[in-house]
Amino acid sequence: MFRRVIVWTGHMGAAAGAFYRAAMEPNAEARPLAGRTALVTGAAGGIGRACAVRLGAAGARVHVVDRAGEAAEKVAAEVGGVAHVVDLADPGAADALPSDADIVVNNAGLQHVAPLHEFPPDTFALMQRVMVEAPFRILRRTLPHMYRRGWGRVVNISSVHGLRASPYKSAYVTAKHALEGLSKVTALEGAPHGVTSNCVSPGYVATPLVTGQIAAQAEAHGIPEDQVVGQVLLARSAIKHLVAPDEVAEAVLWLCGPHSGHITGASLPLDGGWTAQ
Length: 277
Ligand SMILES: NC(=O)c1ccc[n+]([C@@H]2O[C@H](COP(=O)([O-])OP(=O)(O)OC[C@H]3O[C@@H](n4cnc5c(N)ncnc54)[C@H](O)[C@@H]3O)[C@@H](O)[C@H]2O)c1
Hints:
Elements: H1 14-23, E1 37-41, H2 46-57, E2 61-66, H3 69-79, E3 82-85, E4 103-106, H4 121-149, E5 152-157, H5 170-190, E6 195-202, H6 208-211, H7 214-221, H8 228-233, H9 245-256, E7 267-270
Parallel strand pairs: 1-2, 1-4, 2-3, 4-5, 5-6, 6-7
Helix pairs in contact: 2-3, 2-9, 4-5
The site of nicotinamide-adenine-dinucleotide has 26 residues, from helix 2 and helix 6.
């Protein structure tokens, strides 16, 4: 049964024709990513897992990339995808990953909270390797495939900290600002090849990355742990509750879907109004 009435005009090219024929296939709306392959880093838990589940449900074949092997295998089994157990701090890790991804979600990340003058240099370097160098190396590996197919979607999970700074997060704020820059360059170079690149930039999301920093935030700010969420994490958010991982995954899916092809080089803040201030 036809879902839409299509008025064909002589101005429509072959690519538009293929798109409209695909849109009329049964399930095209429910599974808009059928036939696509997605690679999601840090997909064993938190936001990455939510993205893997959502992209898989939309029809994509998902490469689940994480250093946490058992959890990655579990997510891969859940989404019918393939687990790749690698440590993205290793500069050679990207070479072990598939190069034929149509969608890349650079999500893996970590946090460390400490005043700049006490921040461990090794931790600073590690965070740049995982959150900046690994995305660069993965894009360097996968963009040629996207260019050959004339279609690709890059979504970088940045943060409100890619747009704003907070004290005690020198490595994280540095890395996320760099990721925003990498994403914009990818957008400019990818545009002639049908590849878009965007950042999704959430405020605080209810994941282990957040619960894991509460003690350190309490110490750095000199307040009790039970006051950290209200007084520190949500202090600049107009909406006073944490973002859910599924909300981030829906934004990622939308950026990979058929109605967002003109959005590129952008940063989509899911920050409860933080950057409106
Ligand atoms: N949780 C938040 O409040 C929040 C807000 C904004 C942005 N983000 C970003 O979202 C992304 C995901 O965060 P999350 O909250 O889901 O974190 P999380 O700690 O729940 O999950 C991160 C995942 O990345 C994996 N990972 C970490 N280092 C890795 C490495 N070296 N190699 C391979 N895998 C590695 C972990 O094993 C884990 O599965 C991060 O980039 C983070 O900066 C999170």
